[in-house]
Write a structure and sequence with these properties.
- Helix content is about 40%, strand content about 15%.
- By secondary structure, the protein is an alpha/beta fold.
- It has a 5-stranded mixed beta sheet with strand order 2-1-3-4-7, sandwiched between helices. The protein has a 3-stranded antiparallel beta sheet with strand order 10-12-11.
- It is globular.
- It comes from Variimorphobacter saccharofermentans.
- It holds the Pfam family DUF1835.
- This is DUF1835 domain-containing protein.
């Protein structure tokens, strides 16, 4: 059984990254015919019309595509003791963006949009508009969920939660594995509506209080340990990097790609890059060559 919105009923969808927001905006009014009618790129053999149709088949979850917010503050990383988009938090993002060409105007636009989405969420809660949170078990999503519960702790509001399962059966012999909602095709979100659950007042209070405890602890990182969001040290993921260092010279980008593909922990490539740079500064690794200075991860590196 799927739960669909009654026409005209508003529902604010809450996600925790820009890619998830983009997919959700499409999912609200998904139309397979429109998707098929657009420009389609493919690699290798051109798919048949039937194959394309199967790829784009799906349904809308209903509502207005503007009723989507991204509470994407990357709260698993850095200082969370102060304002959620204050100077400390903005400095975290600038650190993560350090290798990319993100000019001041783009940065300001990003922070402005973050604040706008948070205020939209608050307004919806106060106005009695139902809120549906799409959370996964990645650290950034779990942190976002805890933060939202803390933000809305004193507002009597209707909150529903859809938790992303680790996998979803497709057929008798096939399953789809998921790490975060950004991996779910826009036309497939409706398939998860049956997992929607009401968040009770006591659950909201407990989860919100946990975020308060994490704010007080204010560790460099937050991670999921045994299903619980936990404060951890800055070097928490370093053992993964160290265990995967090849004996020969390697390009930073290839190592980061391997870590992202094999471990699927919901950690950003930028964080791995920061830790590798730290290891270079600590003389655990040495830079052999700047193979591609234009690429943010173009260094050739070697174990000491």
């Amino acid at each position: 059984m799927y739960i669909f919105l009654i026409e005209g009923e508003a529902m604010l969808e809450v996600v925790f990254s820009d890619s998830e927001k983009g997919s959700m905006k499409v999912a609200k009014n998904y139309n397979a015919k429109t998707m098929l009618g657009g420009a389609i790129g493919y690699i290798g053999k051109k798919p048949t019309k039937a194959e394309l149709g199967k790829h784009f088949e799906g349904q809308a979850i209903g509502g207005n595509s503007q009723d989507v917010v991204n509470i994407g503050f990357s709260l698993d990383i850095g200082d969370i003791s102060g304002e959620i988009d204050g100077h400390e938090r903005q400095n975290i993002f600038r650190k993560l963006w350090g290798r990319f060409e993100v000019d001041n105007k783009e940065q300001e636009r990003f922070f402005r949009n973050q604040r706008k989405d948070m205020e939209k969420l608050l307004s919806a809660a106060k106005d009695g508009i139902p809120i549906r949170i799409w959370k996964s078990n990645t650290p950034y999503s779990a942190c976002g969920f805890h933060f939202v519960c803390h933000l809305l702790k004193n507002i009597d509001c209707d909150i529903r939660v859809v938790s992303l399962p680790e996998y979803k059966p497709i057929s008798e012999n096939e399953i789809a594995e998921y790490n975060h909602w950004g991996e779910v095709a826009a036309g497939k979100f409706y398939q998860f509506l049956s997992l929607e659950k009401q968040l009770t007042k006591i659950e909201k209070r407990i989860i919100g209080d946990r975020w308060h405890d994490l704010m007080v602890e204010n560790a460099p990182l937050r991670a999921i340990i045994n299903g619980k969001l936990t404060s951890v040290p800055e070097n928490f993921y370093d053992f993964i990097i160290m265990n995967n260092l090849p004996d020969s010279d390697f390009i930073m980008a290839r190592l980061i790609g391997k870590l992202l593909g094999e471990y699927r922990l919901g950690i950003s490539d930028s964080w791995y890059a920061l830790r590798i740079e730290k290891m270079i500064k600590e003389n655990k690794l040495i830079v052999v060559e700047e193979k591609d200075p234009s690429h943010p991860y173009g260094k050739v590196v070697r174990k000491v």
